[in-house]
Amino acid sequence: MGMKQILTGKMKHGGIFVHLRSPHSTQRLELNYYPPRSSFHEKYRIGSELDHLGFWTTDVDRLYRTLLAKGARKAIEPFSEGKYRLAFVKDPDGIWIELIGVGRRR
Description:
4-stranded mixed sheet; 9% helix; 43% strand; globular; single chain; 3-stranded antiparallel sheet; 106 residues; 2,3-Dihydroxybiphenyl 1,2-Dioxygenase, domain 1; mainly beta
């Protein structure tokens, strides 16, 4: 996705956090991990706990191909819906990643 790790740290209870940022953005995405020794640890279960993550991009088709080349799995190939261009891939854990853009593929 082109995001870079800008900060990482450990929480008092044993959890670990990572802040990621996309190029040319001031917004951050924080990811948290709670290992078994942490008081907030929960066993991971595939299901509806996390439906998907969505990322806006200027070129859905190009990013879709890039992510597949880097090991993501196909979920839904790029398609247009109204003024939006969308696609979905799955990460190594099977979590769906939505790619969202404006405009139709030419």
